[in-house]
Write a structure and sequence with these properties.
Elements lengths: L2 H9 L4 E3 L5 E3 L5 H29 L3 H22 L3 H21 L2
Antiparallel strand pairs: 1-2
Helix pairs in contact: 2-3, 2-4, 3-4
Length: 111
């Protein structure tokens, strides 16, 4: 690699974007690919956690409602994974938060 190629690599930062006025702007936050991957990982981990909680809850309190609530939470996690794979990360985040809060609220209300 020549000295000019090395210099050109160091001149251009990897995390900069060209703004509308032609100047370099620093990128803040995650890239779209990182955001998708993060939500896929979070959805997968929560899917496994909901499965484990379902097993423990069934051991303590056998009820069709418990299966329904945690089954719904697991389905929501699967939908979040698919939405994230298709690039709908904001929708997936809202669905994950709202769905899991609703499922945990319903579990708390169950006798």
């Amino acid at each position: 690699m020549s000295a000019s190629e090395q210099a050109s690599e160091h001149d251009t930062p990897a995390t900069s974007d060209i703004g509308p006025d032609g100047t370099d702007e620093e990128r803040t936050g995650l890239t779209p690919r990182q955001a998708r991957l993060l939500r896929i990982v979070v959805g997968s981990v929560l899917l496994v956690v909901m499965g484990a909680v379902l097993v423990f809850r069934l051991a303590a309190h056998t009820s069709v409602l418990v299966v329904g609530v945690y089954g719904l939470a697991m389905i929501i996690c699967g939908i979040v994974i698919e939405l994230s794979r298709n690039g709908r990360t904001r929708l997936a985040t809202w669905l994950l938060v709202a769905g899991l809060l609703a499922a945990l609220g319903l579990d708390w209300m169950l006798p």
